[in-house]
Amino acid sequence: MFKKMKDYKIILLKKNNLSVREFNIFTLFLFGAILFIFISISIYSTEVKDMLSFYDLRRNQKNNRILEQQIKAQQNKIDVLLEEINSLKERDESMRKLLKIPSINDDVRKLGVGGSDSIRSLNDLNYLLPNKFDLDKLPRDLAFIERSINLEKLSYNQIESIANEKLDYYLHYPAIYPVSLKEARRTSRYGYRRDPFTKSRRFHEGDDFSGPIGVDVYATADGKVVSSKRYGSFGNYIEINHGNGYMTVYAHLSTREVRRGDKVERGQKIGEIGNTGRSTAPHLHYEVIYNDKHTNPNKYYFKVKS
After folding, report:
1. Which one of 36, 66, 96 terminates a domain?
2. Residues forming a β-bridge with 23
3. How sure is the predictor about 100, in pLDDT bands with cuts at 50, 70 and 90?
């Protein structure tokens, strides 16, 4: 067929002119076929390229969802660590208050001590995620945690050093709640209040903790029991001498588990909440006495024991 096509020609005559041009049909066919193939390849290449791009897009979206889940999981772990750091801060400040060490300034705590200098910005990676994340927050939080840990190490070294110097004094210093706050709650505080019996305004010389009969009552510091008896309106009553001018009182107990002359340690069970003596409901009446004067127990709670 191609041989026959070579035998045919197309002759073109220009109007009003004698010039003539002739074209071989086979040459025209060949040129048209090449042009058709070139156009087809161009169109097909574009479609293939689009298909590959769409595939890459779907694959990246899937990978990005996995990345998003991993970042969320890491952020949740970091949030837990930040809560622990805050809890350590509260304990640290409580111990400093107990040992009469100046508090660490909040600005110092926010800045921290030490840490890595290699943290860099990750803003240029935000576009990879389907939902926008503040990726800079992750390294900032990690750097803060690292600095805070370094700061707490320094602080606890100072606390340990001072505590060891005056260990005996602080063991005899009232420093915990006399009951677990999970089992009892403070219902009446030190200061003026309306007396539940006379309804008149009277000064209340301690704190009251209400709870079921039988809730454990603890000695708030090391010391020696100087009184354990039934004592008038106080009912079952215990008084402990802690030395250094400090005394503590525990009243309205249902049971007394120590006797006069017994030595006790901080956190040791000495009795149970009761409703003995002049009492309208089961509770513990607790007092702190310093140099023969009643003082507000609230300044002696240091969360050493909940």
Report:
1. 66
2. 10
3. confident
